[in-house]
Amino acid sequence: MTDREKFIVYMSICEIPNKKQELFLEELTNFSFHNLFRNNLIAQTLSKEEYHKFVSSYEPMKFESVLENIQNSGIEIITIDDERYPSKLFDLPDRPLVLYAKGDLTLVNERCLAVVGTRRPSNYGKIVTEKFVGTLASSGFVIVSGLCYGVDEIAHNKTLEMGGKTIAVIGSGLSKIYPQSNTNLANEIVGSGGLVLSEYPPSFVAKRYTFPRRNRIVAGLSDGVLITEAGTKSGTVHTKDFALEYGKDIFAVPGSIYSEMSNLTNELIKTAQAECVLSPDDIIEFYGVKKTEQKKIVNVTFEEQTILNLLANGERDFEFLSEQSGISVNILNSCLTTLEIRGLIRKLPAQTYALI
Fold it and tell me: Disulfide engineering: 242 pairs with which of 28, 176, 210, 216, CB 3.0-4.6 Å?
């Protein structure tokens, strides 16, 4: 690692704002720490608090030990000078100057699709996210999300379930996964050949402002952004704004006009800021990707599996399904709707149903 790269990492550890980091890299030529601590530009640019931390935090042996410990823990450090640095992020106006990574870094060069949305999805949002991600992951898209609750974790889990690849961009350090309950999920992502990525040093604890900043990386790494369900007050708005700024494709799944959880997606469609998608096939066709059929049907309830078994021998009407399954009318209607949304059955005229 060069002196300049070590300086970049040190600025990251000291939490120097990105704009000031960029200024120092542009203006400075000698990155020897002995000279940097006496540099007028640094002293004049940093606030008193930042400068105190910058000067007092450096101990040569300790800093080298920190770098060694990071690398020994399986975390790779990728600075803006590293040839492995993602090209999709290089020209962003507020690019991270250093990334910390665990997993397969080559995934950032693949066709990536961000899947984002509310942390509290409705049943509809859960079903839609699973349906889209299952097909898209099976068709070769690398699914990018933020490892948070709700749509994020559904997207990661469904991708793993289908044997696909996923990238988790987090708002904390890699040794301080947030939320902590998703630590095992992060490990599963890495273990399955995926990637967990952060711009924060490993021991960094998540803060409120780090999640919107994480979202710019989610948008930047992705060719397109799919919003499955989100309200207008959702943090997803930040990802949408970054995607628009970066010229990324945006896809939105419409929802009920009576659901606050669909306000953002419906508004994006109404204002033509996003492509309205009713099926994962819409995105697959948009990118000209060959669809790969999903080979397994998973996570169906006992009642849903009963219906699928009855339809295995051909088309059946509602009355037949009700009589043969013994399922109450209300539950049968709910199951049929769920199976249709998930793309497992199709509804035909005269209340008749068939497998897809």
Answer: 216
Question: Residue 277 burial (CB < 10 Å; 0-12/13-18/19+)?
Answer: buried
Residue 294 belongs to a domain? no
Domains held by the chain: number: 3
Question: Burial of 194 by CB count in 10 Å (0-12 exposed, 13-18 middle, 19+ buried)?
Answer: buried
Task: Kindly state the tokens that stand for 62.
Answer: 């300790």
Taken in order 240, 245, 248, 249, the sign of the CA dihedral is: positive
Q: Which amino acid is at 210?
A: T
Residues 29 and 168 in one domain: no
CB 115 within 8 A of CB 144: yes
Domain membership flag for residue 119: yes
Print the domain residue range for 228: 105-286
Alpha carbons 57 and 52: distance in angstroms, whole number: 8
Q: What is the number of helices (H) and of strands (E) in the chain?
A: 17, 12
State the sign of the Cα–Cα–Cα–Cα dihedral 285, 291, 293, 299. negative
User: Of 223, 11, 203, whose CA–CA distance to 96 is shortest?
Assistant: 11
pTM of full prediction above 0.85: no
Please tell me whether residue 179 adopts helix, strand or coil conformation.
coil
User: Distance of alpha carbon 206 from its chain centroid, rounded?
Assistant: 16
Fill in the amino acid letter for 308.
L
* Token duo for residue 163: 């044997």
Is the domain of 253 the same as that of 278?
yes
Residues 212 and 342 in one domain: no
pLDDT (tens digit, 9 = 90+) per residue, 166-216? Answer: 999 999 999 999 999 999 999 999 999 999 999 999 999 999 899 999 999
Residue 74 · residue 61 · CB < 8 Å: no
Contact (Cβ atoms closer than 8 angstroms) between residue 162 and residue 129: no
Q: How far apart are CA 102 and CA 168, in angstroms?
A: 10
